[in-house]
Each structure stands twice: as C-alpha cells, then as structure tokens.
Specification:
The protein is α+β, with helices and mostly antiparallel strands and 199 residues long. Helices cover 18% and strands 42% of the residues. It contains three helices and 14 strands. Strands 1, 2, 3, 4, 5, 6 and 9 form a seven-stranded mixed β-sheet that branches. The protein is elongated.
Length: 199
C-alpha cells in the first residue's frame, strides 16, 4: 500500500488555515533529497510559519527476485514534491520562502502560470493526504504482472506444467487463484505468484 516520506514543520501546532498546497517540480530521483534539504533550510531560516509540511508520497512494493522477496519504495508522483505554504495576496510566493526553495539543489518551478504557483484543489489535497494517512501500518503490496483472465503456466510446485486462467489476485499474500483443468474438471488453485508465468 502507500507510505509517505513526510517532513513536518511545527508538528506540535495545528495546521495553518492560510496555507495552501502547491506542487513543486524537482529532478527525478532527487525527490527525497530535496525534501530533506528543504526541512533543514526551513528550520535554519526559521520559516516554519511560512512553509508547513513537505511530502513525497511513496508506495511500498514487494518484488520477488528468484524466490526471495525484496521490499522497495516506489514514488507515486516521480519528479514532484508537495509543499504546504503561505502565498502573498497576489498569489505569488513570499520572497523569503522562494529564495530558500529555489536555492535548493534539484528544484525546478512550481506548477502554475506566470510565475505563480497554482494551489491544489481541496479534492486533490484530500486524496494526497489520504495516501499519506493510509500508509501507517499498512502491509506492503506485492507487485504482480498478472490480471484476471490472463492465460498462465505453472512453473513450479506440485502442479508444474499445468496451464490455466487467472481468476483472482491477492496482493497482500502474494498468491494468485488460477483455474486449471485436472482430470477433466475446472479446479481453482491458489499459487504463489512467482511460480507462474504468462503464456
């Protein structure tokens, strides 16, 4: 499921209702580094009242290499960092805030027009924050390259060599329910996904 690299400023205080969420373009694969650098700079410059949370939403995914499962994080929005901040009355970023942000390595521009960031809509903010909230305590999902209806062949275990059709996926357990024909009858089997291959 999802996890979020979240950096919170003034975490003891309630969120400032004047702050809006904006989307900052950054160099791909530099998202986490930019996030951490911004945290340090905001603290050093004492800008917690102007810049709030900084988020890099990620998803934990399990992959099997051979027979070993490995856990890695996949960024949900590669190339972007979400920043909560206060804007000036004309919609621009206060000079103090912008100086600290733009002087951070890997930072590009905010998504917006005419040099002014476009605040995210309440629906988009809600969705993004929900992805952060549901991450706590979630079991990582297994990344499978199968879909319902796919034709597969079992390449390991007691049913090696049997062919069938994918019926259902369980990404938490890493199993796939397949329908195979055994002695002339359609039989459902729950097979570890790494024991299957598409045909």
């Amino acid at each position: 499921m999802t996890e979020t690299n979240e950096i919170m400023q003034s975490s003891e205080d309630a969120p400032n209702p004047e702050m809006v969420w904006c989307v900052l373009r950054v160099a791909t694969n530099r998202e986490t580094g930019v996030c951490e650098a911004l945290k340090r700079k905001i603290t050093v410059e004492g800008l917690e009242e102007l810049i709030g949370r900084v988020l890099v939403p990620t998803e934990k995914v399990k992959r099997t290499v051979g027979k070993q499962q490995r856990l890695y994080e996949r960024k949900l929005y590669p190339g972007y960092v979400f920043v909560e901040l206060i804007l000036d009355d004309d919609g621009s970023i206060p000079e103090k805030s912008w100086f600290v942000i733009k002087e951070t390595n890997g930072v590009g521009e905010f998504i917006g027009t005419e040099g002014k960031p476009s605040p995210m809509s309440p629906d988009d903010v809600s969705k993004m924050l929900h992805q952060a909230d549901v991450s706590e305590g979630d079991t990582p999902s297994v990344q499978m390259e199968f879909a319902k209806g796919d034709s597969i062949k079992i390449k390991g275990g007691s049913f090696e060599g049997f062919e069938g059709t994918v019926e259902e996926l369980d990404t938490e357990k890493g199993t796939v329910r397949v329908i195979v024909t055994i002695f002339g009858r359609a039989t459902p089997l729950d097979i570890e996904y790494w024991q299957l291959e598409k045909i």
